[in-house]
Amino acid sequence: MRLRRYFSKFLGTTRGSPPRVSNSEVLWSWVGGFIAITLVTWLNTRWFSDTDAALLIGSLGASAVLVYGAVRSPLAQPRNLLGGHLVSALVGVGCWQLLGQWPGVSQLLAPGLAVATAIALMHLTRTLHPPGGATALIAVIGSDHIHAAGLWYVLIPAGLGPAILLAVALVVNNLPATRRYPETWW
User: Is the alpha carbon torsion for 93, 98, 104, 108 positive or negative?
Assistant: First the structure.
């Protein structure tokens, strides 16, 4: 009987899909995402292309979805956006520095350890931001340039990138009367 109840959870609920948002909401989400990621891309090519640093990482795309597409979500608020990336970057760099010298071990254990530890620390610091898991993962599976950056990875891209997304979000998300960002700072 317990097993049946357990597997019945796999069916989900009867609530259905989330409601469709208005065309205006779609447009403002698009505008914010486009401006922010284009700005980060431009800054990356302008200031970081001749260096080993990279400002543009994949987890910023996921952050843009939250910050511009789900502006009221607790996971999209500034504390979570900034804190989630910073905590996760520290964890990822720490895992790489701890396990990176043992290639077999680092390839097998470091990714899971980095993501799981980042989740736990984001919970404990009240900075849960799902793209932070990707930031931690990038720190351990990234290129030699990412690994060589060490703690600089925490500042650039994991600190500066989300800060740029936040600055754009403050401007764009508050232009229409129907949107407000942030809901809370801390």
Answer: negative
Q: State pLDDT tens for residues 88-131.
A: 999 999 999 999 888 887 789 999 999 999 999 999 999 999 99
- Provide mean pLDDT across the span 20-26: 94
Peptide bond into 157 cis (omega under 30): yes
Half-sphere exposure of 78 (CA within 13 A, CB side): 15
How confident is the model over 42-64, as pLDDT tens digits? 999 998 776 666 899 999 999 99
pLDDT, residue 53, reads 66
The answer to pTM > 0.85 is yes
Contact between residue 87 and residue 127 where contact means Cβ atoms under 8 Å apart:
yes
